[in-house]
Specification:
Layout: H1 18-38, E1 47-51, H2 57-65, E2 70-73, H3 76-89, E3 94-97, H4 106-112, E4 115-119, H5 122-135, E5 140-144, H6 161-170, E6 176-180, H7 190-202, E7 207-209, H8 216-221, E8 226-229, H9 231-234
Parallel strand pairs: 1-2, 1-8, 2-3, 3-4, 4-5, 5-6, 6-7
């Protein structure tokens, strides 16, 4: 299941309380532990990326105070507005960009994010390489794979991963650490997770970013190293006006 932001003209989502965020985080952590143990995996091998897109700083704060350090954002400008101040208080935060990335936002993304999950084309690879050299830092990079070949969704086709990987490495000198996918909402997710795991194994890529609030236990069963969970922690998305 995808976690698509709700749309509308009014914010009708009631504010979520500190206790709700803390309880949601603990519930998700417990489910991750259980899913890992059920599949004879070390729970420490599964990293929770708390998806905080649309959540204001005061809603994120309880998760930070509860020890959560990996967070994901979909929008560069939104992240720029709220994370610098939070990082002053919590400098060990690891910030992940999980949304579609425009090439003209590569500079800001490279400066702000530690991991980019959505590399899916050579023009973006070129922009990231240029900005990484300029600022002297390179985020960890994951290739987004469109496992369902959905026309409306970002990501490279499964049979094009090898070519994109080779070009990223040889042409732009980029190190690719793993793969990410978002299965089609109407499909059972496990076959898509299994496909991504096979591709990652073929290319010896260590990071598998897959699984969201509705399906992360299945992703863990298929080998996910990073699960991206938002709604189960922060509640329903605020409606954007």
């Amino acid at each position: 299941m995808t976690e698509t932001p709700a749309t509308g003209t009014h914010d009708e989502t009631p504010p979520i309380g500190e206790a709700d965020v803390t309880a949601g985080l603990e519930d998700v952590r417990a489910l991750i532990r259980r899913a890992a143990e059920d599949n004879e995996r070390d729970p420490a091998s599964v990293h929770l990326v708390a998806i905080s897109k649309t959540a204001p700083a005061e809603v994120i704060l309880p998760a930070l105070e509860a020890g959560q350090r990996l967070f994901g954002e979909n929008y560069v400008q939104e992240a720029k507005a709220k994370w610098p101040a939070l990082r002053e208080r919590f400098p060990d935060v690891e910030l992940h960009f999980v949304g579609p990335l425009q090439s003209n936002k590569a500079r800001e993304a490279v400066e702000l994010f530690d991991v980019i999950h959505s590399l899916d084309r050579l023009s973006l690879a070129a922009a990231i390489a240029k900005e990484s050299e300029r600022v002297g830092r390179q985020p960890k990079l994951l290739i987004q794979v469109n496992t369902g070949d959905e026309a409306q969704k970002a990501g490279v086709a499964p049979d094009a991963v090898e070519t994109l990987l080779a070009e990223c490495r040889s042409t732009h000198g980029l190190t690719i650490q793993g793969l990410m996918c978002i299965p089609p909402a109407e499909d059972p997710p496990s076959p898509h997770f299994a496909l991504l795991a096979r591709i990652a194994d073929r290319h010896r890529l260590p990071i598998l970013s897959m699984g969201m609030s509705a399906d992360f236990p299945a992703a863990i069963q298929m080998g996910a190293t990073h699960v991206r969970v938002g709604t189960a922690i922060f509640g329903a998305r605020a409606r954007k006006g």
